[in-house]
Amino acid sequence: MGIVIRQSIKTAVVTFAGVFLGLIINLLSIRVFEKTDLGFTQNLIKASMLLCYFAILGFNSTLVIYGQKYHREHPKRASFLTISIIVPLLSLTVITLLYFIFKDKVIHMYHSGDELLMARYYILFPLLTLLVSIILWMEGYLQSIYKTAIQSFAREILNRLIYLALIFLYAYHLINFDTFIWWYVLLYLVPIVYLAYFIYRFDGFKFGYTKGDFTNREILRIISFAFNQTFVVISAVLIIQIDTILIGPLAYNGLEAIAIYGTAAFAISVIKNPIRALSLSALPSLSDAYQKAQLKKLRANFIKSASVMQLLVLFLSVGILLCANEIQYLINLLKPGYESVSHIMLILLIGHVIDVLGGLSLEVLTLSKYYLYNTLFSFSSLIVIVILIYNWIDVYGLQGVAWASSIGMVMYAVLKSVFLYRKLGIQPYTVNTLKIAGISIVALAACYFLNLFSNPICNMFLKGGIYSILFLGLSMRLKISEEFNELVKKYLPFIK
């Protein structure tokens, strides 16, 4: 697991670079785009990303898990890969048809002013769904052969560099919004080519079905597993994205509200993306331990990864809490109309931090025979979120939506953790958890009142810098994670 953790944290380094690019993108987007255009762009991305999970039917996760069984030297690998790509292609065809069958109904869900944008660029929704589905399949394949850093670079760096370049072109009036949004979607071909190049470099990527490799029953078992993964993944994704998706049709200001809420929700990606990098890297190892019935190894790997996740999530979330006022000041400088961002951001953090503190509970449940329970937990929490949003959005506005999302996330996290402990005897909380919580409190208390400059932005850099050194230094001193310590010493030698 040490190798996996080191790879995970290295992948997280790439992800942090992506988060930094994402921060620049978000700030520039607030500055250069009208709220309606920004809201439409975020709506396009969220909706297409969600539907691509329906299109791929869980075969990206199936590649990771079954890929350990049908490894690169396995005689049935070509047949397995063929099955894993044909079914999603058929599903993608159906999804595309449904896009056009329900086109009018989807467009009329939005307010009159927003309908024009939805109608004008509706074709981009199925197109982006297609391109992202291809990328998801490729990512699943690379994860199955332990090449997570490659797919992380494509997702976190390459995509964002392209996005950033287009924003600069738009900001300097070299392209209009029409050109921007079309090129944003079409340039997803670049990461596809990038991923394809690396996939072809490694042995074991081959297609071709040999009759007799799989019985009909075995094929149905693979497809059934993939379908179950679909429900697991979609329910988990919906919990994170349903708030933003419902805002467009339900909020009185539609796409503009999405722009405000999406800016606040970026804080979630700051903590979720590095955690996602860790889970992607750890999943093959967890899968291997479970399939070999090595429960002791599974528990050890789970606890090690949980310590790193808890360290990362508290470091990032407490840092955001520390600088929340300064972040809001910076956003207000860029453009008026985003004054509620910091409040929404902090509300959203509550639920997602509690969820991440539970470790890779979703991943372990997905691997186990109890995977359908995760679907039950997530859909139950999802129903709670939807009901609360419908009842609170008109009364409490976007903060009501944020509270609904956070309450649902806490419910989901508690259900997963309690069930996992009762059935497998696995739980993520150790003495290290208390140490990390103590470090967070000490670092926050030491830096919270460090307002030495009249300029809030200068204070943000001062507090953020001292906080980072203090938090990381204490984490190393208390030896929360040996692998984490090794990487800090290697890349940040000034922190002792």
Strand and helix map with partners:
Blueprint: H1 2-32, H2 35-56, H3 59-66, H4 77-101, H5 103-107, H6 112-120, H7 124-144, H8 148-171, H9 177-186, H10 189-201, H11 216-250, H12 254-291, H13 295-322, H14 324-334, H15 341-357, H16 361-367, H17 371-424, H18 431-447, H19 456-477, H20 482-491
Biggest sheet record: none
Q: Termini, distance in Å?
A: 25 Å
Helix content: over 70%
Report the β-strand fraction as a percent range: under 5%
Describe the oligomeric state of these chains in a short phrase. single chain
The DSSP helix count reads 20
Shape: globular
Average predicted confidence as pLDDT: 83
Provide a descriptive summary of the structure in words.
This protein has 496 residues and is mainly α. The protein has helices at 2-32, 35-56, 59-66, 77-101, 103-107, 112-120, 124-144, 148-171, 177-186, 189-201, 216-250, 254-291, 295-322, 324-334, 341-357, 361-367, 371-424, 431-447, 456-477, 482-491. It has one domain. It is built from 20 helices and no strands. It is globular, with a radius of gyration of 22 Å.
